[in-house]
Amino acid sequence: MRADQPTTVAFTLPDLDIGGGQTILLRTLVALREVQSELVPVVVALRDGPMLGRYEEAGIPCHVLGLPHGKASLSGHPATVASMVRILGRERVQAICSLNTPLDRAYAQLAGEIRRVPVAVWFMSVAIPLLGFPPPRGRELAWAKRLALYPWNWCSIRRTAARLALSASVTASFADHLRLAGADFDLVPPGLPDAFYRSALGPEQAATLRRSLGVQGRRPLLLCVGMLIDLKGQQELVPMMGLLRQRLPEAHLLLVGEGPNRAMLEQLVEAEGVADRVTLLGHRGDVADLLAVSDGLISASRSEGFGMAVLEAMAAGKPVVAVHTPAFEEFAVGGETAIFVERQDAALLAGTVADVFAEPERAAAMGRTGRERAERFRVERTAERLAAVLQRMLEERRASALATR
């Protein structure tokens, strides 16, 4: 592919809400423009969301299809597919990459078939086994829906021209789930921009940020970043802060993120008597700055496709305490860059946090080692890997077209 013949690639998203996949994609597309000019990205989202402004600010063209929510979406599907096909035509899209929620993947593949362009899928979370895995309480209907859609997923993913995975753990889970070989997936791990490796905050700015958060003088200042859902484990971190009162009386926890558990967590903060030790910040666009003024990161998530929050903390040179998930082992080292615990448990987490921050030199050494390891995950490398897979996919499609003439 010649540099004077750029190729437009559409990246499909279910929505533009603030989430891990949307953030990873934005960072990668910004880097993609910097590392090469052969691929021109556009984003097609089924629904709007607060990240639209961030994409537009970064200069990434975005199209929002406006798919209705709930039952209204059923009647809206045909018109929305037609709208997506028209957008792909106007933008002269030659390839599509879906971020693998079932909905945006279905749209990507239908539109790809109509436009006759190849479709790649970038898997970003581990597959949840359907059999032998009881659905969470209140999620039985969603589980039944996933079970019913399994044959479609099984068939449709085999028709994709390329399959990318965020981690080896994601590869293994989907290879098993869909009866595919690990070699059928290309590993494209996420990366971080320079802001996480080198804080732009000076001492005065850091002090101002701490004052604005109401945590001046609080040590250790712990940060947790993630959607407020049971899976992420914040419901264990709130009582953990009460248990830390004796060993770390000045400790404070900042919870960054939003989600359906917010009201429950606010009630739990009051019930545990830790309103002076826990702050729910909601969504924040300055996570790199929050890491710069924090003393460490804590993750209580019991499942991760990769674990961006942990990598971000490592890049910032901060020690990590986390519930163990296999994906963490692909970039973090237990005992050197992070201390892992085996389950979501308030007492276990409290004891581990207290032990880590009782030895400041040990915590600092963990941060230094973490920063060194995180250097391998620069976002420019992610962009280069993504571009290589997409260019190979396009070359294979062209070769196939020539062979059938």
In short:
The chain is α/β, with parallel strands linked by helices and 405 residues long.
What does this structure look like?
The protein has 405 residues and is an alpha/beta fold. The protein contains 14 helices and 13 strands. A seven-stranded parallel β-sheet has the order 3-2-1-4-5-6-7, sandwiched between helices. The chain has a six-stranded parallel β-sheet with strand order 10-9-8-11-12-13, sandwiched between helices. It is globular. The model has no long low-confidence stretch (mean pLDDT 90).
**What's the CATH C level of the largest domain?**
Alpha Beta
Question: Order of strands across the widest beta sheet?
Answer: 3-2-1-4-5-6-7
**Strand count:** 13
Which band does the percent of strand residues land in? 15-25%
The CATH superfamily of the largest domain appears as Glycogen Phosphorylase B
* CATH fold-type name of the largest domain: Rossmann fold
Secondary-structure map:
Blueprint: E1 7-13, H1 20-35, E2 39-45, H2 52-57, E3 62-64, H3 72-90, E4 93-98, H4 102-115, E5 119-123, H5 140-158, E6 162-165, H6 168-178, E7 186-187, H7 203-213, E8 221-225, H8 234-243, E9 252-256, H9 262-271, E10 278-282, H10 287-293, E11 296-299, H11 308-315, E12 320-323, E13 338-341, H12 346-357, H13 360-374, H14 379-403
Parallel strand pairs: 1-2, 1-4, 2-3, 4-5, 5-6, 6-7, 8-9, 8-11, 9-10, 11-12, 12-13
Helix pairs in contact: 1-14, 3-4, 7-10, 8-9, 8-12, 11-13
